[in-house]
Every structure is written in C-alpha cells, then in structure tokens.
Amino acid sequence: MSEHILPTVKMIGIPCDFTSSHLRGAAAAPPAIRAALFGGSSNLCSEFGVDLKGNNRFIDSGDLAAVENIEQYQQITHAISELVSPTDRPLIIGGDHAITYPVMRAIVEHHGPVNILHFDAHPDLYDNFEGNRYSHACPFARIMEAGLAKRLVQVGIRTLNEHQSQQAEKYGVEIHAMNTFCASSFEPSFEGPVYVSFDIDGLDPAYAPGVSHHEPGGLSVREALRIIQSIDAPIIGADVVELNPERDINGMTAMVAAKLVKELAGKMLA
Q1: pTM confidence score
Q2: Which domains does the chain have, with CATH numbers?
C-alpha cells in the first residue's frame, strides 16, 4: 500500500444466523447496531479523536442480502471481496460468528494470511458442532485448517473443553483464558496486519446481556477497549458479531456493539 493512500473503513452488515446453536436472532443485529451508532444519544467521535460524522473515510456500505442457507453462506466471500481492497478495510457487523470464516477468505485474497485477535467466551474451534462444520462454533477451526491465519490470539475464553483444547494445540492457537487473564497488563504485539474478531459474549453479560449465550465471568467494556487501543499493528479488518437484539435490555448491548464499532473504526483510521 502506498504511504500516500489513506485507508477507508467500510461498515458492512451480514444478517446471518442460520448456523446458530441454542438460539437464533443475531441476523437482526445490523439494523440494531446502526440505530445505536447513529441514533443521536452519543456522538460519533472515537476515543482516538477520530470523528466518524461526515468522515469520507468511513462508509456505511449497507447490508448483504440475508444469508439463510449454505449456498448463500458460501457467497459471502465473493461479496466481501468485491467491497474491499488493500486500502478499503471492512468492518463487519453480524450476524453470528460463522461469518468470520468466509470474511477471512476475502481478507486473505487481498492481504494473504494475517494475525487474528479474537475476543470471545468460546474458542469456536470445534471440528464440527452437532454435525455442522460451518456452525458458529466452528469458524476458527475452518480458518486454521485453511491456513488463513499466521497467528490466532484468543482472549476472554472461559468455556474451553477437551476437544477444543486439543484443537488449539493442533493449530498453535494462543488462548488467554479468563481464569488467569490480567487485562490491565495484556498488550498484544503482532508482526504484520491484524484482523479483530469481536464476539459480544466475550464481555461479561452484566455489560452485554443481549447475546444468545450468557457466560458470566467475562471482560468489562473498558478492559476490551484498552486491549483494542493497545494493538501495535495495522488493523486491516474487523467484525462485531453475536448481538441478539431479541435478548437485549433497553438497547444497552446494541450500544456496546456500536461503541466497539466506533472505537475499532477510530483505531483503523487513526
């Protein structure tokens, strides 16, 4: 990328939850996040001092068509690839976590394998879940087996079972489990570009109740923001996934998701 070409962030919604286990509802997240982001209760200035309001480097590219089957799911890669370039950086609002695999395939088309910083309560490393290799519980198994990530760093994890522990060892995944994690001193260091994948249930449900899988003992919003703000490499894409508006309370989780979008965009444009 030429040093004279400034990056652009394109926000893209992917309404997808047909692979969700337990509860569906994440497909309704993109409009809920937009309503919180642009609703006027807060301004669009990030903590980095980057104001998204009227910023021609921050573009809302709308939503992809609803993804309701495996054929449409497989088309996500092409759709995202058409919207981004080495200087057009996607900021995906999901949707469940299954979307990260086809999005990463599009990222790699433009950048090659990159580092991934993954916030989540769950490692999402199942080889298959309930017979589905494309479940929202499996995207990072697909990503790692396809060689799409140079390095996968996971934070917020608190549901690591034996199978996923074996998968993590197989693929060299760096897991920072919550029972031993110190967010105040964690400063991720990466050689090369980073993709940030943020599952809202990585946060403690006290901060984000509007998710399908409540898992107590997670990160605070401030801890998550501090980690994002400390990233020492270019962020070339990101997703914020697994908001379930049907379970939200007074729109508070949608506002948390909007805050993450604002701060990720600010970091990407700073």
Answers
A1: 0.96
A2: 8-269 (3.40.800.10)
